[in-house]
Amino acid sequence: MRHFKPLSQSDQTRLDHLFEELQDSTDTFAGYPCNVKYDYSELHRFLTYSINNIGDPFNYTNYRVNTHEFEREVVTFFAKLLKAGDNFRGYVCNGGTEGNLFGIDLGLQRFPDGILYFSETTHYSIDKIARIVRAPVEKIPALESGEINYDLLKESIKKNKGKPVIINLNIGTTMKGAVDDLSKIKTILDELEIKDYHLHADAALSGMILPFVESQQAFNFEDGIHSIAISGHKFIGSPIPCGIVVTNQDSPAVSQPNIAYVKINDSTISGSRNGFTSLILWYAIRGYGHEGFKSLVDECLALTEHAVKAFNEAGIPAWRNKNSTTLVFPRPAEHLIEKWQLAPYHDIAHIVIMPHFDEQFINNILEDLKKGVKS
């Protein structure tokens, strides 16, 4: 029986206009860390099916319209990339916020009376997560670079001595691409004789950059991290927001309810999950491989260095943090922020150089900033 009627001409026109608007907006997409250079047309046929990756991808389920096999390969790739060893678990989630929620919730499961510490430059999702999980919070001021203020962090932990410590480390802050220094934080924990702690890394963007550089900042499992969240739609690129979360910590039994009607344990946050995004990430991993991703990272870092030089030569003071593709410069006029979709914050703005950038794209932005006039 057919109940779905064809769209009216006006509805079809609205869709056509939306398509054109999205095309135009993508052409000036400069301020936000999403790679828009990809081709997943080979996967379009899978949109015919109701793919639901419910539950833990490493367990069996009676809901067989899933891509758990491919999801397991994605998680395994990231576990190896992040040096998690043989004892790891994780899944493809809906984005960085869910990955952060998983990591912080895991820390609170391990240490229910723990206090959550993070810097004022931390992604807004951490404030939201703290509210959701009702965690006591200590928000620490940041250094000019964007890193957490280590001296003030130490004072705050010392003030709460006796309480377990849960720290959200920024592995690339939103506005400045700053990486919190894990070695300094571990030194603080050692000096204060803190034994019960959980270190979660919000590595939304830089988690796909640091593993491929020669002189990387410490942030992986061998360095002492307990959980890591990375966004899939940022450096890798995806038409659907997604992320990967990995941990080397065992799951408390209470966090893995058995869902009888689909015959699976569920250690995830969201339960029913998008199985198509696992295919997207798997396809990208198989297409690029380790060397392909490294080449993308090398190109973006070189282009960022070019942009720093070009901006400064044009009289616009611009800078970046180590191993960051986030170019920071003084906040320009609002019409330029709107035109190029720049990310502003107080007196600064930034562009985030992604694989879809090239020198001409940067030069076009720079010319507008130099003229400071509408075009």
Please provide a written account of the structure.
The chain is α/β, with parallel strands linked by helices and 375 residues long. 38% of the residues lie in helices and 14% in strands. The chain contains 10 helices and 12 strands. Helix 8 crosses helix 10.
Shape: globular
Strand order of the largest sheet: 1-7-6-5-4-2-3
User: What is the fold named in CATH at topology level of the largest domain?
Assistant: Aspartate Aminotransferase, domain 2
Sketch the topology as an H/E string, one letter per element. Answer: HHEHEHEHEHEEHEEEHEHEEH
Number of strand elements: 12
Helix proportion range: 25-40%
Largest sheet: 7 strands, mixed
Uncertain residue segments = none
How many helices? 10
- Helix and strand composition category: alpha/beta
Beta-strand percentage range: 5-15%
Q: What's the CATH H-level homologous superfamily of the largest domain?
A: Type I PLP-dependent aspartate aminotransferase-like (Major domain)
User: Class of the largest domain, according to the CATH hierarchy?
Assistant: Alpha Beta
Distance between the termini: 53 Å
Question: Compute the gyration radius: what is it?
Answer: 22 Å
In total, how many domains does the architecture comprise?
Answer: 2
Short description:
The protein is an alpha/beta fold and 375 residues long. It has 10 helices and 12 strands. A 7-stranded mixed sheet has the order 1-7-6-5-4-2-3, with helices on both faces.
